[in-house]
Amino acid sequence: MSASGPRLQPTIFELSKPGRGGGKVPHPPSDALDRIPPEQRREKPPGLPELAEPEVVRHFVNLSQLNHAVDTGFYPLGSCTMKWNPKVNEWAARLPGFAGLHPLAPDSTAQGTLQLLWELEQILLRITGMDAVTLQPAAGAHGELTGILMIRAYHEARGDMARTEVLVPDSAHGTNPATATMAGLRTVSLLHEHDGGVNVEAFRRALGPQTAAIMITNPSTLGIFETEIGELLEAVHEAGALAYMDGANLNAILGRFKPGEAGFDVMHINTHKTFSTPHGGGGPGAGPVAVNDRLAPYLPAPRVLREADGTFRLERPGERPTSIGRMRSFVGSTGVLVRAYAYLRTHGASGLAEITDDAVLAANYLKHRLAESGAFDIPFEGVCKHEFIASASTLKKRTGVRTLDIAKRLLDHGFHAPTVYFPLTVDEAMLIEPTETESLETLDAFADALIAIAREAETEPEIVKTAPHTAPVRRLDEAGAARNPNLRWRPAVGDWTPCPD
Ligand SMILES: Cc1ncc(COP(=O)(O)O)c(C=O)c1O
User: Fold this and answer.
1) Could you name the CATH architecture of 87-345?
2) Cβ–Cβ contacts within 10 Å for residue 152, how many?
3) Is the CB of 337 under 6 A from ligand 1?
4) Is residue 79 within 6 Å of ligand 1 at its C-beta?
5) What's the gap in Å between 7 CA and the centre of ligand 1?
6) Domain boundaries, the chain
7) Sign (positive/negative) of CA torsion 285, 290, 295, 300?
8) What are phi and psi of 215, to 5 degrees?
């Protein structure tokens, strides 16, 4: 980070002053150096920064506040479910029995963790209406790959090698077609209906002996619950194909809709969204995959098993030869899974249904406020699930202000932007997801800010187009940042490099 802009700071190495320090480290014994063999001694002291403790703490706390975070403000990032992450989950994940367990510890010394994982599987089965689950995948996209690889293994086990196509609606998240390709299959993308829903007839027509699977996101990435797919799922099975449900939007259906009972064969769950693990900065996730009996034989190994005497163990190598194998090291992102377990146990079944109801209510409230204001286009009318689409298409034609400008201007109002330009099927899209954890006052303040920006676009468009004006950095060249990333620190003055590259 360069040392420019009022809230940016010099690096800790630049702040360093020779001889300064915390001074609280006990002095080493006088013969300490003699105890280190000469050939293992440093010739020069390491180039560590020298500062007093408060300077270090302030430096890092200030840095931590340069980014918007759900701990500092509203984060309505559609499709990402940036809900509040209760701090008690962090406490649970840091308990030494979980955090300090060696991943290769024998089962007999890992009973607590194995029991937690097994119980988490049971809870996820009740939520999804499926028959078996793997906790191994590291994220939603990884869960998709796991699911589609199992579908491929299922067809191959039946000697049905002609099934090479995966049918996906055009509103799907990019990871769906990417998954099909990575699994060695071909994606057939199908146009959506005018109301944003899956075009059931188009799917029916595309089904055939070449279809391996359909992938449907329910509720869809447009925030619409697909009510018309019951018969489609039957047709899929009649055609010999299987149905994958992208469960990234599970927050909208907890306790209200069980994909397994509706006829889906397999789905993934983004625990880091629905079950409250901090995410967004590329940190660890977990994408458990739940399947029905058809696919259970192909689940990744090792599974967590409960023995007749109530103890737990991991499957042994080769114990289930039909498995697609290991998808991740050890048993998965255990820390994330502990957080999910803590969250699920805190809420219980009735609490989970309330989460969904509140998330849906919050999204519909915001949608209604924006629709009523007339500030933006609301392409899909009616009740939405936990997220909805607003579009700046008409505003852009009138004022030249684009969705990207609105996203940047929101930062000046203290809000993170919604997801922008996704799904690709809507011009100048903003996908807004408030989640259940925000108060009425926050929802109103966000709606007021969006409406104020739309009014400003009419009267002073340049202010919106040049936003943000109060963030640590001004408008960045995003294409340039992606193609020529500037990742290496350089000194502000001179060429002295205090920290090694
Ligand atoms: C609908 C949908 N599917 C799949 C994914 C992929 O999930 P992950 O980011 O955990 O890989 C996302 C992520 O935003 C999503 O919104």
Assistant:
1) 3-Layer(aba) Sandwich (3.40)
2) 23
3) no
4) yes
5) 33
6) 12-64, 87-345, 355-483
7) positive
8) -125, 120
pLDDT digits (tens, 9 = 90+) for 44-81: 888 889 999 999 999 999 988 888 889 899 999 999 99
Reply yes or no on whether the pLDDT at 499 is more than 50: no
Strand order in the sheet with 419-420: 388-391, 429-432, 419-420
Asked if 225 and 219 count as a contact pair (C-beta separation under 8 A), the reply is: yes
Beta strand 312-314 pairing with 304-306: antiparallel
* Separation between Cα atoms, residue 332 and residue 136, nearest integer Å: 4
pLDDT at 501: 40
Give the atom of ligand 1 at the shortest distance from the alpha carbon of 246: 3
Q: What is the pLDDT of residues 218-231, one digit of tens each?
A: 999 999 999 888 99
Task: State whether CATH 3.90.1150.10 applies to domain 355-483.
Answer: yes
Q: Is the CB of 285 under 6 A from ligand 1?
A: yes
Ligand 1 contact via 251 beta carbon (within 6 Å): no
How far does residue 116's CA lie from ligand 1's centre (Å)? 25
**Facing residues of 313 across strands?**
305
C-beta of 138 in contact with ligand 1 (< 6 A)? no
Residue 436 to residues 84, 231, 236, 310: CA-CA distances in angstroms?
9, 32, 34, 37
289 CA → ligand 1 middle, Å: 13
